[in-house]
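for ur thesis appendix - DUF4398 domain-containing protein. copy paste whatever u need, i formatted it the way the template wanted (i think)
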Amino acid sequence: MNILKSAAIAFSLTIAMGTFSTAAVAESDPGRVSHNPADVIVEINKRIDAAENAINNGAEGDEVVALIRKARDFTKELNANDKVSRETAKVRAHLKKAEASAKTADLQDAKAHLADAKKALVTLQTFM
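the 3d part is after this line
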């Protein structure tokens, strides 16, 4: 009788948990826009280009930091799988180094890190 009770409880738990699929009822937070991964990569690339253009046009360090931060923050929108997450972390690391260089007014070093971030984005596109 004990085995029958345990089996009935296990079966009812399985049925209860199986009726609500997480993937089926998943939705983004209210007011939050979900992006296609390929679109996110293109947008990050545009934001990196904007930061590079600001450096080329003689912008101050604070302006460049703000542009790099926008690109780095947008990398959080890229959700696909574990490989993509690892590659995204590499892009984010380069952007963080570029931001740190821009804070110290070393804009040429920041530009080099932005170029490395763009190379990492190209690698990231191969996973899509």
